[in-house]
Amino acid sequence: MNNTRRRHPSSLASILSIASVLVMLGLFLSVLLFGQKLENRLREHVSLVVLFHLDTEESVILGMKAELEARPDIKEVIYYSSEAGLEEMTRDLNQDILNTLEYNPIPATLELHFKSDFANQVNLAKMKVELAQNKRIREVSYQSGILEQIEANATKVLAGIGALAILFSIIAVTLINGTIRLELYSQRFIIRSMQLVGAKPWFILRPFMATAMRMALWALVIAFLVLSGIAYIVSAFIPDAVSMINLEEIGLVSGIIIVSGILLTVICSYFATRKYLRLKLEELF
Question: What pLDDT was estimated at residue 52?
Answer without folding.
Answer: 92
